Structures are given as structure tokens and as C-alpha cells.
């Protein structure tokens, strides 16, 4: 179980990532799967240096990872749980829902792991 400090740090890292429109656009682009900085720059109409800087920030925030592919490096979201989390966040904001196959265990895990010092969850 994460400590209160770890949860707060995670929220701060996520907030830092989402606070910048370019980083948000990169996260959304990576929902479609791994990609190269040059391709992302072309897709989003940004410079390669700008994309590289923002991808480095997203990597430091723990949201993306690199994968060496020959002489190039691609970027991807850290795992499927982040894909689901971003998808869920978008659905919450737009008032739609789509259950995930593992929804019931995840709900139990959330209920058991969030203790804000207010007694039972």
C-alpha cells in the first residue's frame, strides 16, 4: 500500500504532466501506441526538440518509458493501467463510462488502499 506521501507525490507528478498542453497532447497521442519523437513532432506540428523535452519530462514523471528500436528510441505509456486510467479520466470528464474487464477487483483495491486517516474506508 502506498503511503500518503507517495500518493501525494504521484498526484503531483500527474498534475505536472497534465498541466502543460503539449504534454497532454503527447499523452493522448501515445494512447494509440508507441511512437518516435520525430513522428510525434510531425503529427502535432511541433519541433523535435520541443517534443523531446516534453517526453523527457513525461519520463521523469513516470508516465512514459523508452524502447530502443535499432538506432532509434520510441516512447510509450508505462503500462496498460495508465491507458485505462487516462481513458477513464476522459470518460469521467465527458460523462460516459465504459467498464474494463477487471473493474470489480480494481474497485475493491481502491477501497482497501485509500486510507486518509478518517477511520475505515
Structure explained in plain terms:
One of its GO terms (molecular function) is DNA-binding transcription factor activity. It comes from Nocardiopsis algeriensis. Keywords: DNA-binding. With 121 residues, the protein is mainly α. It has one domain (8-92): Arc Repressor Mutant, subunit A. The chain has 6 helices and 2 strands; from the N terminus they run H-H-H-H-E-E-H-H. The chain has a two-stranded antiparallel ribbon with strand order 1-2. Helix 2 packs across helix 4 (48-60) and helix 3 (37-44) packs across helix 4.
In short:
With 121 residues, this protein is mainly alpha-helical. Helix content is 60%, strand content 10%. The protein has one domain: Arc Repressor Mutant, subunit A.
Notable traits:
mainly alpha; Arc Repressor Mutant, subunit A; two-stranded antiparallel ribbon; 6 helices; 10% strand; disordered C terminus
Amino acid at each position: 500500500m502506498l503511503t500518503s506521501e507517495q500518493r501525494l507525490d504521484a498526484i503531483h507528478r500527474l498534475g505536472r504532466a497534465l498541466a502543460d498542453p503539449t504534454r497532454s497532447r503527447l499523452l493522448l497521442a501515445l494512447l494509440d501506441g508507441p511512437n518516435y519523437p520525430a513522428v510525434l513532432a510531425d503529427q502535432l506540428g511541433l519541433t523535435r526538440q520541443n517534443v523531446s523535452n516534453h517526453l523527457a519530462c513525461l519520463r521523469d514523471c513516470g508516465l512514459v518509458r523508452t524502447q530502443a528500436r535499432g538506432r532509434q528510441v520510441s516512447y510509450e505509456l508505462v503500462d496498460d493501467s495508465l491507458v485505462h486510467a487516462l481513458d477513464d479520466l476522459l470518460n469521467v470528464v465527458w460523462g460516459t463510462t465504459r467498464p474494463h474487464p477487471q473493474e470489480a477487483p480494481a474497485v475493491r483495491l481502491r477501497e482497501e488502499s485509500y486510507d486518509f486517516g478518517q477511520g475505515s474506508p
